[in-house]
Amino acid sequence: MSVMKKILTTVAVAATLMGTAAEAKTMRIALVVKALGIGFFEAANKGAQEAAKELGDVEIIYTGPTSTTAEGQIEVINSLIAQGVDAIAISANDPDAVVPALKKAMERGITVISWDSGVAKDGRMMHLNPSSPALIGNTIIKLAADHLPDGGDVAVLSATATSTNQNIWIDEMKKVMGNYPKVNLVATVYGDDLADKSYREAQGLMATYPNLKAIIAPTTVGILAASQAVTDAGKIGQINVTGLGLPSEMAGAVESGATVSFAIWNPVDLGYAATELAYNIAMGAKAEPGAEIPMGRMGTAKLDDNNEAAMSDPFTYDKSNIEEFKSVF
Predict the structure, then answer these.
(1) Range of the domain at 191
(2) Are 59 and 146 in a shared domain?
(3) DSSP 125
(4) Domain CATH code at residue 146
(5) Cβ neighbours around 148 below 10 Å, total
(6) 20 to 30 A from 203, CA-CA: which of 60, 138, 192, 289?
(7) pTM, 2 dp
(8) What is the pLDDT of residues 142-171, one digit of tens each?
C-alpha cells in the first residue's frame, strides 16, 4: 500500500469513528421542577429516568430551585444554557416570568417544553397537560358509577362556585351522565376549598338526601373532608366518597373503606412522558398544531392550536396501589 493510500485509509477510518462518536452522543435533558424536595416531582424524576433508560442515549439532569420562585427557576435555566444542555422540560412557577430565559435557551438551539404547570406560548415549543377537562369529567363520574351496579343518588362537593377548572370538569361530567342512566345527580354544593366548610356541606348532603350513595369531590380538600364526614356519620359502606385526591392524604380513607377509589394524575407517568416528548422534539419531531408526537408507553401527544396536549385519563388509586404511592405525594 502506498503512503498516500495509507493516509487516505487512516483519514477514512478516523472520519468513520468520529461519525460513530457523534451518533452515540448522549442527549442531556434537564427536568426543571418547581422546587427540589417535593415528593410529586421526585416521582416525576423516576419516570424521567425510566424513559432515559428506555431511550438508551439520554442523561437526565434533575434540577430546580430550593423554593418555588420564578427567580430561582430563571437562575437554573441560565445555568443550563451555560452548560449547553440539549433540552429543558419545565414545570413553571410562573408562566410569564420564565419566558425571556427560555426564549434565550431556544435561540441557542435548546429544545424547550413545559409540563404539569405551563409556560406562556412564546417560551416553549409545546406544553403537556396531565389530563384534559373531558377526561377528568368522565373519570370522576365513572369512579362513582363503577361501584353502583344498581345506580343511585350521587352529589358533587366542589371548591368555589366560581372555580373555573372545577366548573368545567363538572360540566364535562354532566355531558356523559347519559352513559350511566341509573345514576342520578341530586345536587352540587360548594365547600370553597375550606376543610371545615367542605365537611359541613358533606354533612348537609347526607341529611338532605337519605338515599345518597356517593359524594364526588373533584378537589383534594373536598374529598378528604367528605371522607371524614362519612366516617364520622358511621356510613362507610353506604356512601362512597370519590373524586380527585392525593394518595398521601387519602390513604386512611381507602384503608377504612370510606373511599373505594379516587384519581389524580400519576407523576411518574408525567415525568416519563415529558422526557419522551423532549427527546423526540430534539430529534426533529415538529411541535406544531395537529402534530402527533410519540411519548413511549403513554401513547401519542396530539397538539392543539396552542401547541398543548393532554397526557391521559387521571390515574386511579385504590387498595391495590395506595401503599406504593402514599409516601410519594
Answers:
(1) 133-264
(2) no
(3) S
(4) 3.40.50.2300
(5) 17
(6) 138
(7) 0.81
(8) 999 999 999 999 999 999 998 888 999 999
